[in-house]
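Run folding on both entries below.
>entry_1
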Amino acid sequence: MLPRRRDGDGRGLGRHRRRVRRGGAQARSLGTDPLGFGQPVRIQDPALWPTLRGQWNSRWFPHATVDVSVQTSLVMPGLTALPLQGAPGG
């Protein structure tokens, strides 16, 4: 039986979502764009990018809204890299 999905309870996906949000907020407060969110802007509108480039980290990126969505799939459930404690051979 697979474990139930945990979301928003502080122990599962909700915890990771909060960590990502905190990391994004910290990056914006430091005036950095560590994941390169400016690159799609540069690619989509190359004529506009030279105007934005000098102020991207200080003026534009701090006001950007970032939505994080994660999808996962189990390819080989039950397969582990290390033997389980208490299991035969483990």
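>entry_2
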Amino acid sequence: MPKNKSLSDLTTEELDKKKKQSFAIMTSFAIIMIIAMVILIYLSLRAKKYALLGIPATLFGGFIPIYSNYKQIENEIKSRQSTKN
């Protein structure tokens, strides 16, 4: 099983690859989340079960770790570019 390396241990090429993967995951999750939110809002209003409206709001909680990982990768790439100059 490959060991997870910290971002500072990765090469620039590996960071770029990881950034692209993270962006793809973030985009896919956002699309799925938006679709799920629309369906849940529609079903809750149709069934008149307004307590279900809280579920779409909680879906944003799963997006936070994905976004923060993406920003960490971006910051690591920027810090490497600034040290090269």
